[in-house]
Amino acid sequence: MKVKGKVIKAVGGFFYVAHDHKVTEAKARKKLSYNNREIMVGDNVELSFDKYGKASVESLLPRRNFLTRPSVANVDIAVITIASLPAPDFVLVDKITLNCYIQNIRPVLAVNKSDINGKDFFEKICREYSDAVYEIISLSAEQDIGTDALKECIKGSTSVFCGQSAVGKTSLLNRLAEEAQKTGGLSAKSGRGKHTTRHSGIFDIGDDTYIVDTPGFSLLDIDIPSSELRLYYSDLVALQDKCKYHTCTHTTEPQCGVKAAVESGVFSRGRYQRYLAIYNELKEAEKNKF
User: Fold this and answer.
1) Per residue in 183-238, pLDDT tens?
2) How many CB atoms lie within 10 A of CB 88?
3) β-pair type (77-82, 158-162)
4) Which end of the chain has the least Cβ crowding within 10 Å, N or C?
C-alpha cells in the first residue's frame, strides 16, 4: 500500500509525515534527493507500508520551491516577523524578501508587539515596505491583537514564519496553533534573542492551512547575478521606465530614475542604501569566484 503525504518534521533520520488526518513516523528506504537536496520539512513524499504496518519513505515528489535558511520546501507565504525590540535588521528583511521573490513565495510582514512598538514604528515600516511586500499586518501575540487578520492572510497556504529570534514568531504560532511551544526571551547580557525552536516543523491549523516554525537566524545568502538584483525589487521595477538605460542597475549610471526618486523622497533612502549594500556583496562574490 502506498499513500502520499507531507513531511512535517525531520529529526534524527526519522520523518513524520501527515496524511489522511494523521501523522506517521517513517525512515527513508534509501537516500532520496531532489535536485541534489535531501528530504526537507515541507516535502511531499510517497509512503509505503510493509506487512507489519511499518512505514518507509518510498519517493520524494517534485518541489515547487525551497528555502535553505530556514530549511523548508513547498512554501506559499513567508511571514517575516519583526518588532521594535530587538532592533530590526532591515538588511535581513530585504534579503528574505528577495529570496521570496526568487523562489516565487509571497512575502508578508508581521509587525509584532504592537502594544509596545508605537504608531511611529509601524508607519515607518509601511513607508519602507508597502510597495515591496504583499501585506503588512500590525499585531500583538501577547495581547492577541491582529492575529485574526494574520490567520485570514495565510488561510489555505503553507506559510513559513521567519525572522530574528525573540521577535515573537513562536508566540504568534502559539496563538494560531493549538500545540504551544515554550517561548524564550531576550538575553539580558546581549539583548539578542534566545533560540527557542530547534528544528523546523509544520503545524496544521485547519482549512488546509499549514504554518512552519523555524529556528531564528541572522543571515541569508542571495545567489543571483548582481545585474539581476534590480529585477527582484518590485518597487524598483516600477521606477525602471524613468531610467535612461533599460538595463540600469541604479548604482553608477547617469539619469537614473531610482536615484532621482531617492533624492526627491519618493523612494526610501534607507531601502536604497540597503539595495546598494546587497548589490556590492554580490559584485564582491562574483570577483572572488575567479
Assistant:
1) 343 333 334 344 344 456 788 787 778 887 665 444 467 889 999 999 999 899 99
2) 21
3) parallel
4) C
Task: Quote the CA–CA distance of 261 and 17 in Å, as a whole number.
Answer: 50
SS3 content of the chain, % helix, strand, coil (to 5): 30, 25, 45
Distance CA 269, CA 186 (A): 30
Render pLDDT for 74-121 as a digit per residue (tens, 0 to 9). Answer: 999 999 999 999 999 999 999 989 988 988 999 999 999 999 998 899
100, HSE (Cβ side, Cα atoms, 13 Å) = 26
Spatial contact of 153 and 203, defined as CB atoms under 8 Å apart: no
C-alpha cell at 9: 518534521
pTM: 0.80
Rounded CA separation 40/283 (Å): 31
Burial of residue 199 (number of CB atoms within 10 Å: 0-12, 13-18, 19+): middle
